[in-house]
Amino acid sequence: MNTIAAYTKFEILGAIRIPMVFVALLFLPTVGMLLFVVPALGDDPVAATLSTGSMCLFTVLIICSAQYGLGIADARMKPWGGYVRTLPGGPLPKMVSMIVMSSVFVVAGSIPLIGIAVLGTEATASLLDIVLGLGALVLAVVPFSLLMLAIGYAVNPYLVSVITSIAPIILAYLGGLFTDPNSTGGFTANVSPFIPTRGSAELVWAAIGDYTPNPLSMVMLGVWTVVLAFLAYRAYRSDEGKRFR
Amino acid sequence: MTEVLARASGVTRRYGDVVAVDDLSVEIPAGQLLGLLGPNGAGKSTLINMFVGLRKPTSGTVELFGHDPRDVRARRRMGMTPQETGMPETLQAGEVIEFVAAHYPNPISRKELLAQFHLEDVERRQTGGLSGGEKRRLAIALAFVGRPDLVFLDEPTTGLDVEVRRALWDGVKAYNAAGGTAVITSHYLEEIEELAQRVIIIDNGRAVADDSVDALRRISGLRKVTIRALEVPALPGVVGVEQTGDVVSLITADSDQLVRDLVASGAPFADLEVSSGSLEDAFLAYTTKAPTAAPTA
């Protein structure tokens, strides 16, 4: 317990001393709110509410990329990461502290977006809806942190920064986060259900508004989570820090 | 019979085609200060990394306190220094110590540790802003946070000034006097000579020598004949000459013959002294590559 608290404090201290990190994390979702949600869907209470959820999920993707993808790649590059692995802690405190951090980031990152929705759109949601929605967002950390862990451990650290900066945008786009959740256009109907982002998004939408998830998306989300967990585990096991050949 | 704290048996580690450690066997008994000496790339760091569980041997076994080095039970009794270049820059020195201390059941109090390594002034400064010497001292302090029975000190005093180095040596000696065991690698032969009771010379991944510092000096077979003289005649069998003012040291394989020749030459001299060669001579005798010269500071 002592160790878990120490890791969490360590992570938080490391993050808050560089405030620009938060600006970088929230930049794209905020732009999405201001340029897409507010002008295009702001007058429609249902679409505005659900799309605010989409932008919050977009933030989750970016947080996972930074925290797990970049964070792990960074730890593999730096001797400090190797040193920490020689301490008698094991992987548990590190994992727990990262999950706690993610949850804190997700809630903190959603607040400004919810603020924009309240001020700039007709979006409505009860307090319970918002709490459920935040819960669904924290749940969404699971598949995407696993994806980013797999990338962070398996891919050359220099490449990870490239992948982690474009992956959230591609995943958000393919999952249909940049369209009206209730639109039934060809793309969102045919491709999105097979993308893990869609399943997570539909859970968020169901939590905050009147939305019924597509069973196919739910099944695919489960499949993705299992596959990604396997890949992340394999990548972790075969990692010995920086590789020399 | 002394307890063996760590043991490598027939250990080989390859990186692709490169063999970094080649069928090496080492036992580290309790209470010993063991020096690992070798040219760059000889395999010292790879050996240490296998002892602390950062790398797995390609073949052979490594044991730490009777367990696999990756076992938490083994790591609780072991300490090592991180490389100072990799400290988390935004954290304060005190916070880093606190983080490491949280891993151990009975860590040294922060105050005591800071005092021991002369770090009181930097406790509340971010590690990114510390000088090279301060970072180095913090890194070494971290190895001792958990009151370890065995510490691995990889190049502990590289880049430190003489005063700090001396203070650190005293610290290591005090730790050893209280029963602690340490494995030290260094480029500085002087450091190994000062601290280590036993030296293993590693070259090309193999242990080419494993003995006490005194024995290694003798084994090198070279003797130093020191005299006070204004002029030294050319003598046969001299392989090296060191001169400071009127004090001249002649390095030779046969000091008896050299002394005879010196007397026979009739040259005036005083204060004749014969001593065994230095560890550096032994090192050169065992390895093909020259060591880094000891810093002159």
Automatic annotation (TrEMBL), chain A:
Source organism, top-level taxon: Bacteria
Keywords: Membrane, Transmembrane, Transmembrane helix
Membrane-crossing segments per the record: 21-41, 47-70, 95-118, 130-151, 158-178, 216-236
Name of the protein in question: ABC-2 type transport system permease protein
Lineage of the species this protein comes from: Bacteria, Bacillati, Actinomycetota, Actinomycetes, Pseudonocardiales
From TrEMBL, chain B:
UniProt GO molecular function: ATP binding; ATP hydrolysis activity
GO cellular component assignments: plasma membrane
GO biological process: response to antibiotic
Membrane topology according to the record: Peripheral membrane protein
Pfam families: ABC_tran
Keyword annotations of the record: Antibiotic resistance, ATP-binding, Nucleotide-binding, Transport
Domain ABC transporter: 6-229
Keyword Acetylation found: no
Protein origin, superkingdom: Bacteria
Entry-linked Gene3D superfamilies: P-loop containing nucleotide triphosphate hydrolases (3.40.50.300)
Compartments, record wording: Cell membrane
CDD domains per the UniProt record, alphabetical: ABC_DR_subfamily_A
Protein name stated in the entry: ABC-2 type transport system ATP-binding protein
